[in-house]
Amino acid sequence: MNKSQTIQALTVSLFILSTIFGQGTSYPPPTTLVTIPTAGTLVRGSFAMEMRIQKGGGMSTALQAGITDRFQFGLSYGASNLIGDDSLRWYPRPEANLKYRLIDETTSMPGVAIGINTQGFGGYNDADSLKRYDTKAYGFYTSASKNWQTPLGNAGLHAGMSYNFLEIADGDEDPNIFFGLDLEFNPELSVLIEWNAALNENDMQSKNLAINNGGYLNAAVRWTFVDHLHIELDFNNLLFDDDKVDYFNRELKITYIEYF
């Protein structure tokens, strides 16, 4: 499936969901799914602290704040081998996350946001000239989100395109596409599914990179343990390349949202 066919398929999916679920609601979409950005933003006067526990004892942390009802800003930092007895490998720099919602969601139209997220996923590889994370960051992106109220709860469809302008030492500067779905079973429990096409990933020099097979298919179960606290169990890279790895990644993500 080429890029044009993929975009057409996403458009058809949006139409099918709107037909099935009828009128939309004002339910605000989440700001992210497992990894992909949505059109949702933090409201003014709120902040979110996120901790992602990754494979190999790695951990990344992020702090984001809602500056206005449309604009949010954040920073993230982390390290590989933070837990364990191997050498600690810090990320090379703090990474930025900015998002601005251009268009509000209505009953007939999705919300649209633009943003920059330079934080990749997994360890940072600096042993050769690649200079990139295991999974590249989304970089500059635009995303669209549409939500519906179903008998089970809120359902949201999210899609977008991105361009990574930093991690291009592998010679792959192609734009990327992504989409995902979140479904709420009750006020505490949600299921998330997403697909990152990874059109901008090559494995030119490092055998442990580009371990996906046809993009990254990720899924998660998100539990609102108490008000403002989300605990999420992620299952990443379900379409792994079994010539390079024989497993998918299991990660834990904890998000706390508060107001000031």
Topology:
Blueprint lengths: L2 H19 L24 E8 L5 E8 L4 E10 L8 E2 L4 E9 L7 E7 L3 E5 L6 E4 L3 E11 L4 E10 L12 E9 L4 E8 L19 E11 L2 E8 L12 E11 L1
Antiparallel strand pairs: 1-2, 1-15, 2-3, 3-4, 3-5, 5-6, 6-9, 7-8, 9-10, 10-11, 11-12, 12-13, 13-14, 14-15
What does this structure look like?
This protein is mostly beta strands. The protein has a single domain (3-259), classed as Beta Barrel (Porin), CATH 2.40.160. The chain contains 1 helix and 15 strands; from the N terminus they run αβββββββββββββββ. The chain has one helix at 3-21; strands spanning 46-53, 59-66, 71-80, 89-90, 95-103, 111-117, 121-125, 132-135, 139-149, 154-163, 176-184, 189-196, 216-226, 229-236, 249-259. It has a 12-stranded antiparallel beta barrel with strand order 1-2-3-5-6-9-10-11-12-13-14-15. A two-stranded antiparallel sheet has the order 7-8. The radius of gyration is 18 Å and the shape is globular. 38% of the residues are buried.
CATH superfamily: monomeric porin ompg
CATH architecture title: Beta Barrel
Strand content: over 45%
Calculate the mean pLDDT score and round it. Answer: 84
**What class do helices, strands and sheet pairing give?**
mainly beta
Tell me roughly what share of residues is in helical segments.
Answer: under 10%
Which fold name fills CATH's third level, the topology?
Porin
Number of helices: 1
Oligomer: single chain
Q: How do the strands of the widest beta sheet line up side by side?
A: 1-2-3-5-6-9-10-11-12-13-14-15
